[in-house]
């Protein structure tokens, strides 16, 4: 197939932790890839680079011109409390909601061929409080935090655009994703990688609870492969959200002890202690609630499954963090 005949996939936020992983996964396939980022990303050979500030009006339409599919990973998750978003954070609102609104507008007037595909990265915490710890995507959504509400609003914009026939959009709702960050990409600031860095520094690993809170944790390569797989099943997935996860949710106490042990094996030192501490003022209800994800609906449609066991994923993350 001639290069011009291959589908063009645009990755917005290509220098981020997950966006950069998806670019690498896409580059190994047949599609043309355009990596869009605010700074020059480090990409595999053959990937087109488009440097722009997606907060600038008109930049989204320029970035996705001529595309067949878009993966919008651009995000703003810093703020006064680390990865938290506060009410009134205009930059976060712009990137999480405004960007999607502009994306829909840019793709709406496309003519010829099927509607462009959009695979959106949602969060499994968008569901809010549910009676059961295990979620499968059939629950009624009641998003609580600012970030979850913004993600939910963006999802609804894409669902409406799909119903109107302008795009074929789906949302893959992610659990906490962790793993090594490649050179030139944003660091993974999630809880697992944060604890790896602390253990490498010889610091104790702290929990805001007694360690029994359970989380489904997804390795970054498995997450990236899910987005690539979703592109191949765009028609079957369009119009709804799908949950990603391993189907298992170990306690964070066990995970943190496994992190300490993995670092000890790598360094030859004694494992750092894992301790409980009082939660900080910015703690949210979701931080203290166990969540286990059932990804079987997505797996049944696409054939996707997790391939990297937790112990191996932790060992890779430790090795990469120590090298950096």
From TrEMBL:
One Pfam family cited in the UniProt record for this chain: Epimerase
Domain of life: Bacteria
Signal sequence range: none
SUPFAM superfamilies according to UniProt: NAD(P)-binding Rossmann-fold domains
Domain NAD-dependent epimerase/dehydratase: from-to ranges: 9-245
Native organism: Streptomyces solincola
Gene3D superfamilies: NAD(P)-binding Rossmann-like Domain (3.40.50.720)
CDD domains associated with the record: SDR_e
Protein name in the entry: NAD-dependent epimerase/dehydratase
